[in-house]
Amino acid sequence: MSVAGFSQVQFALGVKAGPNFASINADDGVEGNYKNRTGFHGGAFALFKFTKVGIQPEILFSQQGSNVEINGQNFESNFSYVNIPVILKLYTVAGINLQMGPQFGFVTNGETPIEDQLNPGSYRVEDVKDKMKSSDMTLALGLGWDLPFGLTVDARYNLGLSKIYDQAPSQQTEDAKNQVIQVSVGFKLIKLGK
Hints:
- By secondary structure, the protein is mostly beta strands.
- It has a single domain, classed as Porin.
- It is built from one helix and ten strands; from the N terminus they run H-E-E-E-E-E-E-E-E-E-E.
- Strands 1-3-4-5-6-8-9-10 form an eight-stranded antiparallel β-barrel.
- It starts with a helix and ends with a strand.
- This is PorT family protein.
- Residues 6-165 form the Outer membrane protein beta-barrel domain.
């Protein structure tokens, strides 16, 4: 019975990468100033598939943040995270799957424009990692396609659930949260079972 049960389980290890379209969900008064920043993500995944349901933990490096317009000047908020999503995959037909799960992030870099106290109205990009929360929590929602020859394609929206900052650089960013759209292409390097 155990042999028959194992034959219904697929285990795979693979790699994936793709672009990020990231922004920050900030105070309503400055929402229009935050635009998408294009970055990338990449890393590895494991898949445990049980017929129509799969569990896919991943570890990804992710460039996030936002393009910011302040007083007619354009700046970038550059945030880098190591993210660990744990994704539940519900398979429909032909390898197409619905995806949902928590993602735990750990900040590795943080830079954002800060007003110069000696020159009010002037901004410069500064390291703010020490003002950021060391961890981040998001909800991942998406759609994927596992092709028969080991290729995978995913599109996800990662909705920030926790605030980015412990000590926000401005009042408008006190409640700032990450929001990221990811498009990934992956490949299963090792595949065992059906």
